[in-house]
Amino acid sequence: RALLLLRGQVEPTIDEVLRLSPTDLAAVRSEAERVEVPGEVEALIAELREWCAVEKLRVSDRRWRKAVKLLQVAAFTNGRSAVSIWDCWLLQHCLWDKPEDRPKIYTWYAERVGTSRALDPSRLTQVVVAWEGQLKKDKNGQSQAQDDEGRLLFQGRDGKPTAKPMGRVQKRRNEEPLFLAPDKSSTSGSEWHFDQCLVRDRNNGGQGYTTRELDGLHVRQSGGYPKFQNWTGREAYLGDSSNYLMEEAEFHRLMEPTRHKNHYVNDVLRQIDELRQHVDEYADNLTHHVKTLDDEIHSHLWVTSDFAVPARASLEATQRTVAELLDRVQRLRDGFDKLPRERERDMPKPSVERANPKKSKQGGSSAE
Questions:
Q1: Best label site of 167, 169, 205, 249, fewest CB within 10 Å?
Q2: What are phi and psi of 224, to 5 degrees?
Q3: What is the dihedral of CA 150, 154, 160, 162, to 10 degrees?
Q4: Element (H, E) at 318
Q5: In the prediction, which pLDDT does 367 show?
Q6: Tens of pLDDT along 84-99?
Q7: Burial class, 39, CB count within 10 angstroms (exposed 0-12 / middle 13-18 / buried 19+)
Q8: DSSP summary character for residue 214
């Protein structure tokens, strides 16, 4: 009954001096259309639109257009010719259908203050991580070494570089080095049987002897026939390469860190310099936002002053992240710059086009 008895509409009481006339409103509407929406704001709105879709917040295209017009009005009434990120604070009041959705939009915006789609710290981090992975791959790359004449090098028998791919090396059995039996060694240490049990084949039928097998043989020395393992000349014998059982084998390739083409390294350095320039510009933009934050928010007609606290915290956190990224970008540049590069002899020589003496514009020789 009380509802049915209500009559008329309650109109707000506004002082005459504060009232906007239809002419005022038309002027604001007309001038606001000329306010620029910079790329930084466009990127933020585009990402917010994607976020709303993920969060199942249905916002019609018509409402997005009206929201942008509202931002233009906010900028114009604050005496600016371009929308700023601070004007976007109003978006929390434009996009919700349920009251509980407004704080979600506010939180998203507060965390995004000072970032942009192209230079979002998380995106920049992904780019830097990708470059760090490429640097690690390039640093760990191995290629066969070459000598000053461009010949491939191998590790010779003495461990030194050689251009020969094959040579005689000490034969091995189950990874154990093999030796020849000592000259006039015997399987018996008895004075009476020593000569009868002499080792006739120092090669042991091509099988050679391991050090353990040698230790079981006896050698002749002044005063007796000691076992090889107790022989005073044992170490000298094992260290003499003339006592090795040798075979022909391929040498191992001598590897070195891959030498990269100069144009590859220079191109990478150029890309990293461009990345660093973008991040530097982003850092400068953040610094500007931090310096002007208090004035911008406290003087703004539409943003509540309490937003200055979370906005500053968000900006300063982003500044720390960007400073760390700049440090990583510099380390990347230093790392790529120190990569081994091709020497001049490695680079292909430019072909020289020879003049054809039989051809000329007038049909005569080039000499003519």
A1: 205
A2: 160, -170
A3: -50
A4: helix 308-337
A5: 35
A6: 989 999 999 999 999 9
A7: exposed
A8: H
pLDDT > 50? residue 119: yes
Pairing of strands 252-253, 176-177: unpaired
Q: Which pair of structure tokens corresponds to residue 189?
A: 């240490």
Strands 142-144 and 255-257: what pairing?
A: antiparallel
Q: What is the pLDDT of residues 208-249, one digit of tens each?
A: 999 999 999 999 988 889 999 999 999 999 999 999 999 999
> Is 70 exceeded by the pLDDT of residue 18?
yes
Taking alpha carbons only, the member of 237, 236, 217 closest to residue 227 is: 217
Q: Which amino acid is at 165?
A: P
Helix (H) or strand (E) holding 321: helix 308-337
Residue 229 to residue 138: CA distance in whole angstroms: 50
CA distances from 312 to 47, 65, 160, 200, 356 (A): 21, 29, 63, 92, 73
pLDDT at 360 over 60: no
Distance CA 351, CA 188 (A): 73
String of DSSP letters for 143-165: EE-B-TTS-B-EE-TTSSEES-S
